[in-house]
Design a protein that fits this description.
Radius of gyration: 30 Å
Helix content: 55-70%
Low-confidence stretches: 3-27, 87-95, 462-466, 661-665
Distance between the termini: 84 Å
Number of strands: 12
Shape: globular
Strand content: 5-15%
Strand order of the largest sheet: 4-3-9-5-8-7-6
Structural class: alpha/beta
Oligomer: single chain
Largest sheet: 7 strands, mixed
Length: about 675
């Protein structure tokens, strides 16, 4: 029998099967859960309710799906059905039979309106019947596709389905603190620049990887590593992913899924195709791995549990060696990476922080969200006037928070980092999910303070990057904190922790849910500073023992405390440079101590200035109150001096202040 007859026979056989049986999902299968989410969306559209995204995330929070995936599934279905739902008035006015019946009713009122009503009922029934028939054919066709998608003759059809599913999943970016208001990947994505041992400058990531087979991409929290991977998937869905003359088929696998998994990496790749509407993809994946047509995107090595990381690294390395025809990208947080893929990676690249042009490009996508009284240009100028906040804006995650504060609230961006974090955390813990929040923002703030201080305190013993805290330790800390908040540890600890994770974006699950980390290290340092706001002695003791770990916390503490003289004096005895940096944040310090610190550091500047000292002077000089004016005058005095080293350092510091730029030239 020829291939054509076999194919036809299979089609006829599949048409003879019940569609529901063919399309049925296994209990616990993500697709089955998503069917329930879509069913809720349909019910809400039919009832004329507004989107219930937050409620849906709460309803399915124990389903195994991430909150972002639940919200995305719900929003996509709600929009689709809203666009399709017929308006009764439109249906009535655009049905020809009803129009004619209404014209007849003008001449024969009683009989005419009876006929008009009958015509309307017939029109509605006709519409329903059409939908039922169309739906039946779609169900049968869908069932046939799902049964035969792995067949070689349907390969192009299956890849088209895959592209459409990828586009649906990645075209919108769901932000925890902007429920129901996702960002558009087309406009918000800023091309990631990378650099490393093989490049002297930062360049576009695709340009960097085209000469390499396997590349590890490192970056800090919120630096855009995962966004890069998602954008590569999205670019493929639009037909725009090209590396030189090669048009790869990307597949994204989050590496935490490999923890304690008995299945092979190849099995996980097949499952990812299944989840993106390409079922029975085993033969395709095997062939694509052999020919090298796949671009393997392995995201988040740092999210693999510590106990499993060595095993996962070994399996990935063996997989890349076996399938050497395929190119691969692996992402990991910089502080966690330990040269794990040294033997198989051709390049180790570091994600660059945003420059001014990238910040501007990112903010352009927020134009539509800004009220008429605000603009991108105004926000950029505000950032230029606030160097300490501009430094935060170079991280995509923190820039998203800045843009949200500016666009969605009446808050004025402060000069102080501590005040910025207070505004931002108030916003993220408070109003976004107010209708469905179970716990008060103040209670969640106190829990975060305890978690932050514990993570900072234990970092030296662990020797890690200070961001992670084990689930058991976090739960214990929360349980210990709740009684003084008039809450019950047994009943409230887990739900409160879950609410903070899913709705604020301030802490994230890692290690397959076995640990947590703050979304950015400075958020942890801020909460630790607040927890120690009444314990200056405890903070200075910690700083003396480990200056590197507690330096930023000390500076943030100075921005929180009303009086910082005692602490700054103790810091000066340990590290004069940090004491100088404290002057940029501190609210109140005795003038005599300020003069002593500035005189000491001015002498150091003239003797041997370095990048850290230049930045410290810039941070103080950017505030045109007395401390800042003195630092500014010192820098201006040496800008045009005879010593070129001094003038060069002074020019660099003045440029960093972004103040009075015309007079600097």
């Amino acid at each position: 029998m020829g291939h054509g007859k076999v194919f036809c026979a299979l089609v006829l056989f599949c048409f003879s099967l019940a569609p529901t049986a063919l399309g049925q999902s296994l209990p616990g299968d993500p697709e089955k859960i998503k069917e329930g989410i879509r069913a809720d969306a349909a019910e809400h559209v039919e009832a004329g309710l507004p989107p219930q995204t937050s409620a849906e995330e709460s309803k399915f929070h124990d389903s195994g799906l991430r909150s972002v995936e639940i919200g995305s599934t719900y929003d996509d279905e709600y929009r689709r059905l809203s666009a399709l739902k017929p308006d009764l008035k439109t249906l009535f006015l655009h049905t020809g039979a009803v129009k004619r019946a209404l014209e007849f009713a003008k001449q024969h009122p009683v009989l005419g309106y009876v006929l008009a009503l009958l015509a309307l009922l017939i029109a509605i029934l006709r519409d329903l019947l059409t939908k039922l028939i169309t739906g039946a054919f779609e169900s049968v066709g869908r069932a046939v596709y799902r049964r035969l998608a792995g067949n070689h003759f349907l390969r192009r059809v299956a890849l088209r389905h895959y592209r459409e599913a990828v586009k649906s999943r990645y075209e919108r970016i769901h932000v925890p603190f902007r429920p129901g208001r996702p960002l558009d990947m087309r406009t918000v994505y800023v091309p990631v620049r990378v650099g490393g041992t093989v490049h002297s400058e930062y360049i576009d990531v695709l340009s960097a990887v085209q000469g390499h087979r396997s590349v590890v991409i490192l970056g800090g929290p919120g630096s855009g590593k995962s966004m890069l991977m998602k954008h590569l998937m999205f670019a493929y869905s639009l037909g725009g992913l090209r590396i030189s003359s090669w048009r790869p088929i990307p597949i994204l696998l989050e590496l935490h899924k490999l923890s304690n998994s008995p299945r092979s990496i190849q099995d996980h790749l097949i499952e990812e195709f299944e989840l993106h509407d390409f079922p029975h993809a085993g033969a395709f994946v095997a062939a694509a791995l052999k020919t090298g047509s796949l671009l393997l995107l392995f995201d988040g090595l740092d999210e693999v549990s510590s106990a499993q990381r060595e095993i996962v690294v070994r399996d990935v390395a063996e997989f890349l060696t076996t399938h050497s025809n395929c190119r691969a990208l692996v992402t990991c947080r910089s502080a966690v990476y330990r040269n794990d893929f040294l033997e198989v990676a051709d390049a180790i690249l570091q994600v660059a922080e945003f420059g001014d042009s990238e910040i501007l490009q990112f903010l352009e996508s927020w134009k539509s969200a800004m009220p008429a009284t605000k603009s991108v240009e105004q926000l950029m100028q505000t950032l230029y006037d606030r160097p300490s906040i501009m430094a935060l804006a170079r991280n995509p995650l923190l820039l998203t928070i800045i843009a949200t504060l500016y666009s969605d609230t009446s808050a004025v961006l402060p000069h102080s980092r501590a005040e910025f974090y207070r505004q931002a955390t108030d916003l993220l813990l408070g109003p976004w999910h107010q209708s469905s929040n179970r716990f008060e923002a103040r209670d969640k703030r106190l829990v975060l303070q305890r978690l932050a201080l514990s993570s900072q305190d234990s970092s030296r013993a662990r020797g890690d990057d200070r961001l992670s805290i084990r689930f058991e330790d976090a739960l214990k800390l929360v349980s210990e904190t709740l009684p003084r908040l008039n809450l019950q540890p047994q009943q409230d600890a887990r739900p409160l922790l879950r609410e903070v994770v899913e709705r604020s974006g301030l802490i994230l699950e890692i290690d397959s849910g076995q640990a947590y980390q703050f979304a950015h290290l400075t958020l942890q340092e801020y909460f630790a500073a607040v927890e120690l706001s009444d314990d200056a002695d405890g903070l200075i003791s910690r700083f003396r023992q480990d200056p590197d770990t507690w330096r930023e916390t000390v500076k943030l503490w100075c921005g929180i405390a009303r009086e910082s003289t005692v602490l700054v004096r103790n810091v000066y005895a340990v590290d004069p440079l940090t004491a100088l940096e404290c002057l940029a944040d501190a609210q109140a310090v005795e003038p005599e101590l300020v003069s002593l610190i500035l005189e000491t550091m001015e002498s150091t500047f003239l003797a041997d200035s370095n990048e850290n000292l230049i930045r410290a002077f810039a941070s103080v000089a950017s505030d045109m109150r007395p401390r800042g004016r003195r630092a500014w005058s010192f820098l201006k005095e040496h800008l045009h001096g005879e010593d070129k080293r001094h003038s060069s350092s002074a020019a660099a510091a003045l440029a960093m202040t972004n103040l009075d730029r015309k007079s600097v030239v």
